[in-house]
Amino acid sequence: MAIDATIFLPLTSPTRHSLTRRSLTSLRFFSSSSVQQSFLGLKTVALRNLYFRVSATSMSIEAFEKELQISFLDRKESGFLHFVKYHGLGNDFILVDNRDSTEPKVTPEQAVKLCDRNFGIGVDGVIFAMPGINGTDYTMRIFNSDGSEPEMCGNGIRCFARFIAELENLHGKQSFTVHTGAGLIVPEIQDDGKVKVDMGEPILKALDVPTKLPPNKDQSVVKSELNVDGISWNVTCVSMGNPNCVTFGTKEGQTLQVDELNLADIGPKFEHHTMFPARTNTEFVEVISRSHLKMRVWERGAGATLACGTGACAVVVAAVLEGHAGRSCTVDVPGGPLDIEWREEDNHVYMTGPAEIVFYGSVPL
Questions:
Q1: Which residues, other chains included, contact 314 with Cβ-Cβ below 8 Å and sequence gap of 6+?
Q2: Of 115, 237, 245, 308, which one is the catalytic site residue?
Q3: What confidence tens digit (pLDDT) does each residue in 64-87 have?
Q4: Which of 153, 237, 313, 329 does the annotation list as catalytic?
């Protein structure tokens, strides 16, 4: 699959530098052989067979962006994939309008190529907005950058909610019911633009996580010993619809300094450990206070990412079970903070965080 893409940048995104009409007219066309090192003030990388184009007219920025969004989201040309790139604290995705079909518009193999950060668009996964199932408003499916399909994605569901609001031209506070591989998920767009998600109840039963580690607290694995490459780690296993292995340190009591970890080395050893038959996300956690945690994550099928919503939820559940923190915490991930609450009254975990547009794009399939 050749990656020849047209990319349109949103001009008023809060994550982008503001543009004047004068600066709009100075934007240039770039060829695949000479992608410039600076694009709208943002550092870019040269991508093979990737073409960037920004249309510039004398209309106002606001009118230009409105027309861009309307015309772009209505495109239906065959042979092209039209998408919007979003990110949730740096965990980034291609969002595809797939509401007219129950089959994804790209294959897992095509998703791998699209996700490639050197020869493709460059994202952690491809998310499809599909028709609802069993009375839900929508269905969300996702392909990871390695082509695998996870049950759910916490940052992805926030991006999904913002994407639906744009597709349906919805404004203000909105909520949807979304069918996922992890079951029913209910995201709610807040007045400030952040998205609050009812992530449901955590799954703690070892067989359902799943993990082969023997239960040591009721039917759960809490602060249990896991040997990884000769080092014994204390781990707690939690599923938020996908398996998570949470560790606050080694058996010897060594306190984690998460910024010092070599995730590329240790992450795959956890992910592919024989104790996790479906593989696992792994969260390495540093306790700042009883309401403030810091984590780095190695995601199953995606590797090191800047954020993991389900992982942050699992971290707070594990922190409560191990006695490190209370039920409401700020969890710092490399991309920024997430607010997580594990409510005692309904046993549900609630996640609140941002989701923002990066750009609009089209690519031939």
A1: 202, 238, 239, 240, 244, 246, 281, 283
A2: 308
A3: 455 555 556 676 677 889 999 999
A4: 153
